[in-house]
């Protein structure tokens, strides 16, 4: 290994934020790091700024690639990383001066496979919100699994790739799914967690996540979300917990609801022209995975009943009637 920590930063049209994260990295008390910048086909000045910092400090390496999405960019970074440990940072976020040093020392001394630090969500208007996490300390993974789903649902802490450091060897055979455009972090970590035995939480440094600047999933148009892909991620979630003998109690309840939600959303937001193929796919998948539906209201329960009985024609009529009724109401 050529350095202690490889920092991987995907960059796409974030010129207005780059100098801030560069300044944060230049101030790090840990000097033995490399920063891999992946310019993901930026059309603003991001590429030029990345080249400028690379020219002035050889710890910064730049890869200019055609736009392929954040997962592809991170995979480029993982393949290029030469550090003993890996840390992801988003280009519009901030880190304190002790960030890399604290993560490096903590993972080195704790013998943990993954270290997760405290995090604060920030807004440009000055608002801040602390992300809750388990008490600081080193845990055997199995001891965190009992309430894994509850903690993830409440905080999301297990699903963010930022605010973490992990062994480069741990990720040697693990990559991001480049077909995903949402929750790709969680999918990647669900591939990583099976190989981890010890996870450490520390509150001695804090990752500052900018909630705005196009980061928030709340800005995503519901109809542009690939709910079938999200269903696949949550099936991976289910399989992870099942393999760890932790798919019971509250974990089972939460994952079951997530699976039900994404089955319903896949149908609800489906183009009516593609509904037949989608229903055939979902019917087979739900039967194979033994998904136990949990409808949250009468409409969802009706759709699930029809899906369970493979009454696909009635589902189509129901959805067409719903769309027609909605158009009438909007026309008033």
SSE pattern, N- to C-terminal: EHEHEHEHEEEHHEHEHHHHH
What is the gyration radius calculated from CA atoms? 22 Å
How does the helix and strand content classify structurally? alpha/beta
Largest β-sheet summary: 9 strands, mixed
Fraction of residues in helix: 40-55%
Shape: globular
How many strand segments? Answer: 9
* Low-pLDDT segments, ≥5 res: 215-219
In terms of DSSP E residues, the strand content is 15-25%
Describe this structure in words.
- This protein has 332 residues and is of the alpha/beta class.
- The chain contains 12 helices and 9 strands.
- Strands 1, 2, 3, 4, 5, 6, 7, 8 and 9 form a 9-stranded mixed β-sheet that branches.
- Helix 1 links the parallel strand 1 and strand 2.
- Helix 6 (148-155) crosses helix 9 (249-268).
Topology:
Blueprint: E1 3-11, H1 15-26, E2 33-40, H2 46-56, E3 60-65, H3 70-80, E4 83-88, H4 99-110, E5 114-122, E6 128-131, E7 137-140, H5 141-144, H6 148-155, E8 164-167, H7 184-192, E9 198-210, H8 227-243, H9 249-268, H10 275-289, H11 298-308, H12 312-331
Parallel strand pairs: 1-2, 1-4, 2-3, 5-9
Antiparallel strand pairs: 4-8, 5-6, 5-8, 7-9
Outline:
With 332 residues, this protein is of the alpha/beta class.
Features:
alpha/beta; 12 helices; 19% strand
């Amino acid at each position: 290994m050529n350095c202690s920590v490889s920092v991987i930063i995907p960059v796409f049209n974030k010129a207005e934020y780059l100098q801030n994260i560069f300044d944060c990295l230049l101030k790090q008390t840990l000097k033995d790091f490399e920063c891999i910048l992946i310019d993901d086909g930026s059309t603003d000045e991001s590429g030029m700024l990345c080249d400028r910092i690379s020219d002035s400090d050889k710890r910064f390496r730049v890869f200019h690639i055609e736009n392929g999405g954040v997962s592809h960019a991170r995979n480029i970074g993982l393949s290029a990383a030469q550090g003993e440990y890996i840390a992801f940072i988003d280009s519009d976020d901030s880190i304190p001066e002790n960030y890399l040093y604290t993560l490096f020392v903590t993972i080195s001394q704790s013998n943990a496979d993954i270290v997760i630090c405290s995090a604060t969500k920030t807004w440009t208007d000055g608002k801040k919100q602390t992300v809750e996490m388990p008490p600081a300390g080193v845990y055997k993974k199995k001891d965190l699994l009992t309430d894994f789903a509850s903690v993830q649902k409440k905080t999301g802490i297990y699903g963010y790739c930022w605010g973490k450091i992990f062994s480069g060897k741990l990720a040697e055979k693990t990559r991001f799914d480049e077909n995903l455009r949402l929750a790709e972090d969680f999918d990647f970590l669900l591939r990583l967690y099976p190989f981890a035995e010890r996870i450490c939480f520390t509150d001695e440094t804090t990752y500052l996540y900018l909630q705005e600047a196009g980061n928030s999933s709340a800005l995503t148009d519901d109809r542009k979300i690939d709910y079938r892909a999200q269903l696949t991620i949550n099936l991976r979630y289910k399989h992870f917990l099942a393999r760890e003998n932790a798919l019971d109690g509250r974990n089972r309840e939460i994952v079951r609801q997530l699976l039900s939600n994404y089955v319903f959303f896949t149908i609800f937001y489906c183009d009516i022209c593609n509904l037949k193929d989608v229903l055939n796919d979902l019917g087979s998948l739900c039967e194979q995975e033994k998904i136990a539906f949990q409808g949250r209201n009468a409409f969802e329960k009706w759709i699930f009943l029809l899906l369970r009985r493979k009454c696909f024609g009635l589902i189509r009529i129901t959805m067409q009637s719903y769309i027609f009724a909605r158009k009438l109401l909007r026309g008033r």
